[in-house]
């Protein structure tokens, strides 16, 4: 059963990174939930993402204020700029800093 879960998770991760090369963890978790992969093990996700040559990095994302966001991206020395679509997708799951309580 664990092997089956792992392969389903791996298939979903491969499909997701093919469509969205740079993304927020919440975007990924929503995708997994929408595809009936509920409550996946965080360590297993990290291991599978590393096998796909991905890592989590902190970056400033347009529209998300000055605070850096933790996003998944391909492992490389210098990350490329986010596309407007990627930035909008990340912004959709990050709380708006303009509405933060003082």
Protein model, in words:
The protein has one domain: Arc Repressor Mutant, subunit A. The chain has 102 residues and is α+β, with helices and mostly antiparallel strands. The chain contains 4 helices and 3 strands. Helix 1 crosses helix 3. The longest helix is centred in the N-terminal third of the chain and has 18 residues, at 2-19. The protein has a 3-stranded antiparallel β-sheet. The chain starts with a helix and ends in an 11-residue tail after the last helix.
Task: Indicate the topology.
Layout: H1 2-19, E1 23-24, H2 25-34, H3 42-51, E2 54-59, E3 69-74, H4 84-91
Antiparallel strand pairs: 1-3, 2-3
Helix pairs in contact: 1-3
Overall outline: globular
Order of helices and strands: HEHHEEH
CATH architecture label: Orthogonal Bundle
Low-confidence stretches: none
Q: Please tally the helical runs, counting DSSP H or I stretches of 4 or more residues.
A: 4
Question: Per CATH, what is the topology?
Answer: Arc Repressor Mutant, subunit A
Q: List how many beta strands DSSP finds.
A: 3
Bin the strand percentage.
Answer: 5-15%
Question: What do the pLDDT scores average to?
Answer: 85
* Rg from Cα: 14 Å
Q: Determine the N-to-C terminus distance.
A: 48 Å
The biggest sheet, with number of strands, parallel, antiparallel or mixed sense and barrel status, is:
3 strands, antiparallel
- As for the number of domains, it is 1
């Amino acid at each position: 059963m664990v092997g089956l879960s792992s392969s389903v998770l791996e298939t979903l991760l491969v499909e997701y990174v093919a469509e969205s090369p740079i993304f927020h963890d919440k975007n990924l978790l929503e995708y997994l939930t929408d595809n009936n992969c509920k409550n996946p093990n965080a360590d297993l996700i990290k291991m599978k993402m590393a096998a796909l040559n991905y890592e989590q990095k902190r970056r400033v994302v347009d529209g998300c204020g000055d605070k850096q966001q933790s996003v998944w991206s391909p492992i490389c020395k210098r990350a490329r700029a986010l596309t407007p679509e990627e930035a909008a997708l990340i912004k959709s799951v990050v709380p708006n800093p303009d509405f933060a309580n003082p």
